[in-house]
Amino acid sequence: MFSVSFGTTIHMGEGSLKRLAQFSGERIYFITDEFISKSEMMIKVMEMIPSNNELLVFNGVIPDPPIDNIVSGLEYAKDFNPTKIIAIGGGSALDAAKGIIYFGKQSNIFNEVSLICIPTTSGTGSEVTNFSIITDSENETKYPLVTNDILPEEAILDTSLVMELPQSQTANTGIDVLTHAIEAFVSTNSTDISDALAEKAIKLVFDYLPRAYRDGSDTLAREKMHVASTLAGLAFNQASLGLNHGIAHAAGAKFHIAHGRLNGILLPYVIKFNSGINDSVDTNIAGKYRDIAQLLNLKSSSVTIGTRALINEINKLLRAVGIPSTFSQYGLDKKVFESNLSTIADSAVKDMTTRTNPRPVSPKDVERILKAAY
User: Fold this and answer.
1) What is the pLDDT of residues 359-369, one digit of tens each?
2) How many CB atoms lie within 10 A of CB 120?
3) Which long-range contacts (C-beta less than 8 Å, at least 24 apart) are formed by 347-351?
4) Which of 98, 135, 263, 325 measures 20 to 30 Å from 68, CA to CA?
């Protein structure tokens, strides 16, 4: 038996920010970063909220929010007693808000408070998941926090907030969407429902990410990528992820490569490992990858041909959006790479997301994947 629960009310389509105009008599705590707090996006959001609400803004979120950043956000609001927390920004702002609300409830600083997420990138899917990634800066480690206590009550998907996203962020976040969807699809916890969500997300990424990358003013492409991100988030919130993210969490803390870009570099190599096409093919796992190839109308007369066709198509997409195919092409110093190899491998195997990888993995396997990707 398995159970399915989505739990997040999603407001989407033109004018979705109007949802904010329905708030009355609330104490609203905004969590964001300094750039967004001074942007037109923030002005647009704030103008929607009626004047009979109390507002407090924490704009101290930093990329890959560390534990002390969470503590700062918690301390900032300890006397405010918010009834709603609104996270606006990319994955870091949403993750920080989730950490703040979780520890706020654990320490009884917050009582009855709901979380609303307004993503300004199309990538993490965090607006509909019970996942948050918290960084331990001292130990250079990223920890997934997974609990329904941080599942957002509402998500507002307004395409106007992603129209100005730079090319590099469009690429990085878009490839993160693809990785979420593919890993959810092959996860050991996948179901027909999570598969359906993942399949649609995958198709949307291949159809619309190159368009959004080439022309950021393409409203349809932006809208479709925003939806794809949420669909992939819903998929992996049901099925979890896999080794690709296990390695990315561990390597990202050491190499400081943008998360989506790092996932993109790793993805073809992880698929080769999981499917076994370079040694001993696992027909069940490779069969799932072939299913994706068939979805994309690629050659798939056998599981091996289908898997190789998918890898080739992913590499083609990576080139189209400027994602390097190796760490060396990215410019990662070889000494830095080699000195962190064993530590990353050990951490990746222990990562929570690796538990649902379709193929068992050892630290030595991870080292081989990373060396191939260098």
Assistant:
1) 999 999 999 99
2) 24
3) 347/141, 347/249, 347/250, 347/253, 348/243, 348/246, 348/247, 348/249, 348/250, 348/251, 349/246, 351/144, 351/245, 351/246, 351/247, 351/249, 351/250
4) 263
Q: Which of 251, 256, 282, 263 is nearest to 346 (CA)?
A: 251
Which residue bears the tokens 């049901």?
238
Distances (CA, A) of 317 to 148, 219, 227, 369: 34, 20, 19, 21
Whole-angstrom distance, CA of residue 195 vs CA of residue 202: 10
List pLDDT tens digits, range 243-280: 999 999 999 989 999 999 999 999 999 999 999 998 88
Q: What is the 3-state secondary structure (H, E, C) of the chain?
A: CCCCCCCCEEEECCCHHHHHHHCCCCEEEEECCHHHHCCHHHHHHHHCCCCCCEEEEECCCCCCCEHHHHHHHHHHCCCCCCCEEEEEECHHHHHHHHHHHHHHHHCCCCCCCEEEEEECCCCCCHHHCCEEEEEECCCCEEEEEECHHHCCCEEEECHHHCCCCCHHHHHHHHHHHHHHHHHHHHCCCCCHHHHHHHHHHHHHHHHHHHHHHHCCCCHHHHHHHHHHHHHHHHHHHHHCCCHHHHHHHHHHHHHCCCHHHHHHHHHHHHHHHHHCCCCCCCHHHHHHHHHHHHHCCCCCCCHHHHHHHHHHHHHHHHHHCCCCCCHHHHCCCHHHHHHHHHHHHHHHHHCHHHHHCCCCCCHHHHHHHHHHHC
**CA 248/CA 13 separation, integer angstroms:** 32
252 residue type, one letter: G
Instruction: Write down all domains in the chain, each with its CATH number in brackets.
Output: 9-161 (3.40.50.1970), 167-373 (1.20.1090.10)
